[in-house]
Amino acid sequence: MLEELPVPLDNLQADLISYLENPSDTPFNIYSVSTKPKPTFSTETIAGKTVESVEKKIQRATGTKLNYAQQLAAIPQLANLGELLNSTLPQDLTEADVVSAAYRVRVIKHIFSRHIVLQYQITNTLQEQVLRNLTLELGTQEDNGYSVQTIIPSPEASVNEPADVYAVISRPSLKATDTSLNFPSTTLWNNLLFHTHDIDSKTNQVNSEGFADEFQLDEVEIKIADLMKRQPVTDFTAVWAQTENSEQYHQTIATFSLSTVNSLKDGINEMVKILGMSPCENSQQVADNATKHVLFLSGQFMDLGGVPVIARVRMRFSPQQGAGMELTVRSPNPVLSDALANIMFT
Question: Which of 74, 103, 121 is the last residue of a domain?
Fold first, then answer.
């Protein structure tokens, strides 16, 4: 007889997926999994479209997330960009609802020392069309050191078969001194350009005469959090205690509020996105009716050689005022600690 698991199976599956999608040198620890039951995963069909199962999420995570460096190096136009410092989580640039969206586009930001590669993952959900000659037009209205160098198009996007279009952008260097650290952020507008070819419903043949079309995408923001690699620590509580009075770690504390969030869960998601760090000890989980919470985060700031960073966010929520935050950041670099703690004021 198999020994009973010490945690709920659904919780273990969810945390394994998160671990695989955010690879770490730290081994997975089953005892870091919450014992409180989470909503179960299931495979459902909505209007003929299958919702991705847990197994497929695991396959997708292991098959792609861990191999970004190899994938990019295999593309001749990207092979000489140097070491891949970080790859962000995918960001939806279109309506994420697979039922209502004709096309789904997500972007992954791959950070190199002098360039950023935007990988646009395009999925055509229309059974009666094929998209061909997919490319992009994008740019920024700000003069802050970013410049589009190359667009790598994709020949075709068949129904539900993702196609990748890449944009190579030169980026400014991180400006670091003994007293300040500055990374110019920017916002890119972008449109997807392609030719639409109809499919004959009787013969299933693709019409060779297509027509030019375009699809406006949400803006892409490039910010200092993109330089942060999500790097969870196994025992955050112990690491936090060890760095409490350490001369090697410098601490900065900032307080602010997020008046637009509607719950602590929203506040947690916003802080994870703003800092680009990995939640630790399941601290991203919070009860729906909670009014107080503490979020633990960790990561590596890759533009300074992989500087370890840990952070604690104490938060309090009220419907009238939103979420009040106390952010404490610790790292071996005092300027980095200051910059991240004050990220809301830059």
Answer: 74
